[in-house]
Amino acid sequence: MDGVGHLNNNVFGEFFDLGRLHYFEQALNEQVDWRRGKVMVLVHTEADFLDQVFLYDKIEVHTRVMEIGNRSLKMYQRIVDTKSGKIKAEGRSVLSTYDFSTGQSFPMLDSWREKIAAFEEKIK
């Protein structure tokens, strides 16, 4: 919380990070080790802060994959007040594939594509 008593805008990014982590664990149906192997890394992020969040507000992070490319994907997220349904912030991000063993991007795994598509259908 900042001096005005609301959530500092930098903290919204941390909520978006947690939302992305939770999304991938659910969509891929596994606990991802983000420190090795083949993963997705954040390469772009932007946010719009639409309303204040105060200490005792109950919020959720809603996360969706909007587009899957050859080596990256685009996500949309929003932070929503669970009581009023009001959107407090919106975020957009791009994640790229990354292989820790080579230090390079790689073509999106078909298994990831399929699992993400199935998960998106499930949460519609």
Word description of this protein:
The chain is of the alpha+beta class and 124 residues long. The chain is 27% helix and 36% strand. The chain has helices spanning 9-28, 110-123, and strands at residues 38-49, 59-68, 72-81, 87-99. A 4-stranded antiparallel sheet has the order 1-4-3-2. Strand 2 and strand 3 form a beta hairpin. Helix 1 crosses helix 2. It starts with 8 loop residues before the first helix and ends with a helix. The model has no long low-confidence stretch (mean pLDDT 93).
Order of helices and strands: HEEEEH
Order of strands in the sheet with the most strands?
A: 1-4-3-2
Low-confidence parts: none
Question: Largest sheet, if any?
Answer: 4 strands, antiparallel
- Count of DSSP E strands? 4
Molecular shape: globular
Q: What is the arithmetic mean of pLDDT?
A: 93
Instruction: State the separation between the terminal residues, measured CA to CA.
Output: 33 Å
Q: Counting H and I runs of at least 4 residues, what is the number of helices?
A: 2
Determine the strand fraction and express it as a percent band: 35-45%
- What gyration radius follows from the Cα positions, in whole Å? 16 Å
Structural class: alpha+beta
In helices, the fraction of residues equals 25-40%
